[in-house]
Amino acid sequence: MIIVLLGPPGAGKGTQGERLAARLDVPKIATGDVLRAAVRDGTPLGLEAKAAMDRGDLVPDDVIMGIMKEALASPAAAKGAILDGVVRTTPQADGVAAMLSDIGRKVDAVLLFDIAEDELVRRLSGRTTCDNCQRPFFGREPGELCAVEGHVPTGTLVRRKDDEPDAVRKRLQVYRDQTSPVINWYEEHGPRVVRIDAIGSLEEVEARALQVLGY
Ligand code: AMP
Q: 69-112 pLDDT, tens per residue?
């Protein structure tokens, strides 16, 4: 199954994508994670993407398509994939559809994480992220270890530059202007977009997602 996760920044796509990927035993492909790793490693991709990411802008569509081409070609993705934050513009929706069609596949489901904007601002401004495993934390301070029960700490918590208030405002505006048209794109081309109420505990939101996927 190829599943596209749509929704504004802070809606929980990454966290739920991780859970769904484990549950369905397919990889999660998150362009944001790939880009952050490239920035951290100082690769040419990272150098190209960093300024746009720090501002809360999108990186160019052709950069994203390059990442996706490689990710979809990996053997792990043969069974399917969860695409988290991958399709953020209508040209990317076209590009991903064409790439999948070339290998005889298609997007099977589109889940839209639905959440009010004031809740997003609240969530993002209180979020820290592990600089290694990328796991998000709420109510924890930068500099603390990435430690939760049952999880060996792998890094240190940092405040993502794009979780600063100005960048959050910018990302929400970019979502409204450039990403929300992707909802109509899928309504037009299929598959049907299924809205999921993204407010609730991790387990509740996951159960809603699994239910619409038929699990
Ligand atoms: P995320 O972790 O998904 O919130 O992504 C962090 C940042 O990476 C975004 O604000 C963009 O600057 C960039 N990014 C990630 N995925 C995409 C994409 N599909 N298209 C354009 N920019 C992206």
A: 999 999 999 999 999 999 999 999 999 999 999 999 999 999 99
**Terminal alpha carbon distance of the chain:** 12
What pLDDT does 128 receive? 95
What's the whole-model pTM score? Answer: 0.92
Ligand 1 first shell, C-beta below 6 A: 9, 31-32, 35, 52-53, 56-59, 64, 85-86, 88, 92, 162, 171
How many angstroms separate the CA atoms of 21 and 162, rounded?
25
**Measured between alpha carbons, how far is 176 from 87 in angstroms, rounded to an integer?**
14
pLDDT score for 150: 74
CATH number of the domain that residue 85 is part of: 3.40.50.300
Pocket test for ligand 1, best of 29, 34, 58, 174 (most atoms within 8 A of CB): 58
Domain hosting 193: range is: 2-26+79-116+177-213
* CA 144 – CA 188 distance, rounded (Å): 46
CB-CB contact of 71 with 77 (8 Å): yes
Residue ranges, the chain, pLDDT below 70: none
Helix, strand or coil, per DSSP, at residue 176: helix
